[in-house]
Amino acid sequence: MSLSEPESSRSPEGYLKVENVSKRFGRFKALDNVSFTSNRGELLCILGPSGCGKTTLLRAVAGLDRQDGGRVLLDGCDVSHLPVSRRNVGIVFQSYALFPNLTASRNIAYGLRTRGLGKSRVTERVEELLTLVGLQGHDRKYPAQLSGGQQQRVALARAIAPSPSLLLLDEPLSALDAQVRARLRMEIRSLQQRLGVTTLMVTHDQEEALAMADRILVMDKGRVLQAGTPDEIYSRPACPFVASFIGSMNFIRDAVKEAPRVFRKGNLRLVVEEYDPVPEGSQAILAIRPEDILIGGNGEGSGNLLPAEVRRLEYRGANYRVEMNLILEDTETALIEADVTAERVRGLRIGEKTRIHVDLPTNRLLVYAA
User: Fold this and answer.
1) Which of 147, 156, 190, 241 has the most CB atoms around it within 10 Å of its CB?
2) Which of 147-156, 217-226, 329-338, 347-356 shows the lowest per-residue confidence on average (mean pLDDT)?
C-alpha cells in the first residue's frame, strides 16, 4: 500500500466503535458507560481536563488496559478481549518511549523487524518514513542527539511503520515548547490526511484539538459530554462546562425568564434570538464569547445595549482583553470580558473606570438551564 493512499476503499462509516465502555480503579469510576464512533480516515480528538478519563479510554481502545464492561469494535470486529499485539494499532506515547540505545532508523525499524520483514524491505520502508517525517540525514542519530520535535517525529514514524489500521496519540505534543508544538501539530495533521489512517488523539489542549480534529469528544468525570465538529463544539457548546472549557466564555447567572426569548437580570432586560427550552419564571444561565461582545456601539438592531464600567485592560498585541462590570442596579454588577482591537481601544480612549456601553448581540447569546 502506498503511503499516500487510504487504507481501504470500503465504507468509512463507524470504523471504530466504542460501546458502553466502563472502567473502575477500586472505588473510582474512570469511565462511565462511554460510547462513540469514529469514521474511517477521521482524526477524532478526545479532549478534557486532567483526570477526566481520556487516557484510560485510549488505553482501553489500544488493549493496554482491559475494560470492565462494554465493547471495542474495529472495522466491525470485536477486539475487546484481544491483546494490543493483535489489534493492528500504532501508538505514540506522551513520553515518546524511544529506545535510547538505538538510532533513529533502528527505532523506526524495530516494529518492522518483529513482523519478519526482509532486510531490504525494512531499509526501504525506513528511508521512506524518514523522508515522510522530514528527518533525512538524522538516521544515525540517537534520541539524546535529537530535539524534542525530532524525537516526536521518530516516534510517529515508528508507530506508522507497520501501516496500522488505527493510530493512537496520547498527548503527543505536550512535552514541546509552544512554537514547536504549533508547527508540529499541522505537520501531524497533514501526514494523517495523506495516510488516510483513522486516528484517535488525546489532549487537554483545546487549541490543539480545534486546529487538528475532524471531530472532538469533550469528556469530564469519565463521561462524554458532547461530540461534534470543532465549530459545533465551539459555537454551540452543549452545557456550561463545555462552554467554559473550550475557549473563554462569559456567564450571566441567575437570569430569570420573563417572556419567550426575554430574560431579566437586575434592572437589565436581555433578549435572545434562538428558541430556548427554559420555562418562564425559571432561572437560567446566559453565555457569550468575549469576541462576540461589541464595545461602544449605538445599539442599532440590538435589544441588548447595556451600561458598563471598565475594570482592567490586558494588552495582547493586536487586541485587548477588556474586563468590565455590567451595571445591573445601584449596588449590583456582573463581570464580563470582551476582546477588543487595540485600534478601537485607542479610538474610544478606553481606560480603567471608563463608562461605556456594550452590545450583547441577540444571535450570540446562549441559554442554559440554571
Assistant:
1) 156
2) 329-338
The grid coordinates listed for 107 are: 527505532
Which position has the grid cell 452545557? 239
Dihedral angle sign, alpha carbons of residues 55, 61, 64, 67: positive
Amino acid at 256: V
Q: Write the secondary structure of 22-66 as one string of H (helix), E (strand) and C (coil).
A: EEEECCEEEEEEEEEEECCCCEEEEECCCCCCHHHHHHHHHCCCC
DSSP for residue 278:
P
Measured CA to CA, the distance from residue 79 to residue 165 in angstroms comes to 13
Complete edge-to-edge strand list for the sheet that includes strand 319-327:
294-295, 355-359, 305-315, 319-327, 333-341
* 83 vs 94 pLDDT, higher one: 83
CB within 8 A of 280, min separation 6: which ones? Answer: 257, 258, 259, 260
C-alpha to C-alpha distances, 198 to 1, 13, 166, 252, 270, nearest whole angstrom:
15, 11, 5, 40, 45
In whole angstroms, what is the distance from residue 18 CA to residue 168 CA?
14
Torsion of CA 223, 226, 228, 233, to 10 degrees: -130
Q: Is the pLDDT of residue 10 over 70?
A: no
**Higher local confidence (pLDDT), 111 or 199:** 199
Q: What pLDDT is stored for residue 5 in this prediction?
A: 37
Residue with cell 524518514: 130
| Predicted TM-score (pTM) of this structure | 0.87
What is the C-alpha to C-alpha distance for residues 239 and 218, in angstroms, rounded to an integer?
11
More confident residue, 274 or 273: 273
Q: How confident is the model at residue 28 (pLDDT cuts 50, 70, 90)?
A: very high
Alpha-carbon span 102 to 112, nearest angstrom: 14
By residue count, the chain amounts to 370
